[in-house]
Specification:
Mean pLDDT: 75
CATH superfamily of the largest domain: Winged helix-like DNA-binding domain superfamily/Winged helix DNA-binding domain
Order of helices and strands: HHHHHHHHHH
Shape: globular
Low-confidence stretches: 1-10, 105-135
């Protein structure tokens, strides 16, 4: 029990530290950005590297992500997502965007996903992440636009921003079961859309 309490205390302390650094970035404190980079850079670079599989590319992704973090720090809301989730989602999205751009000129391939994978909330990888890696940004944007408003928003929060089902439910004033249903339907429709690329689902 003591070890568990110690771990919980460490995680809360880390979250508080990251939240404070992001808040300072929001008021354009460059020292805070440097501290945030030194604190989280190695971990986030590792996340990018697992996606782009190239050290030069992962370093570029990390620089782009921290620029985005600097620019968007004021929009971070601690009650909607943990700081590490928010930071990692930005890096993951930038890495997937980079990977998709580099792969867009190659022949596309289909990626068959199980229902369990489609329903999963992403950690280091997610169903939409896998699909995005094989499609151009335009196709993904078109397919997202074909979804209903609530499903589109829930998919974007989960797969592009890294929100949990409970966090999405809180943000959208509903319950986790409804969010699970939205994500399942959304992921299924995105899969069909990205594989066949129809104008409307």
């Amino acid at each position: 029990m003591l070890n568990l309490m110690t771990l919980v205390g460490y995680m809360e302390s880390r979250d508080d530290e990251l939240i404070a650094l992001i808040a300072r970035c929001a008021i354009r404190d460059q020292a805070a950005l440097k501290q945030l980079f030194e604190r989280m850079g190695p971990y986030l670079n590792g996340l990018a590297l697992r996606i782009v599989r190239n050290e030069d590319a992962s370093n570029d992704v990390l620089q782009e992500a921290f620029l985005q973090i600097w620019q968007n720090a004021g929009s971070y809301r601690p009650h909607l997502a943990k700081p590490l989730t928010w930071l990692a989602s930005i890096v993951r999205y930038r890495a997937l965007d980079r990977y998709a751009q580099e792969k867009s000129h190659h022949a596309k391939y289909q990626h068959n996903l199980s229902d369990e994978e489609l329903e999963a909330i992403p950690g280091d990888a997610c169903p939409v992440s896998d699909l995005t890696a094989t499609q151009t940004r335009r196709e993904l944007t078109d397919c997202l636009a074909s979804l209903s408003a609530v499903i589109k928003q829930s998919v974007e929060l989960a797969y592009l921003q890294g929100f949990s089902r409970d966090e999405i439910a809180s943000a959208m004033n509903t319950n986790a079961s409804t969010v699970k249903s939205w994500l399942h339907r959304g992921a299924q429709r995105l899969k069909v859309c990205l594989q066949s690329n129809p104008a409307t689902i």
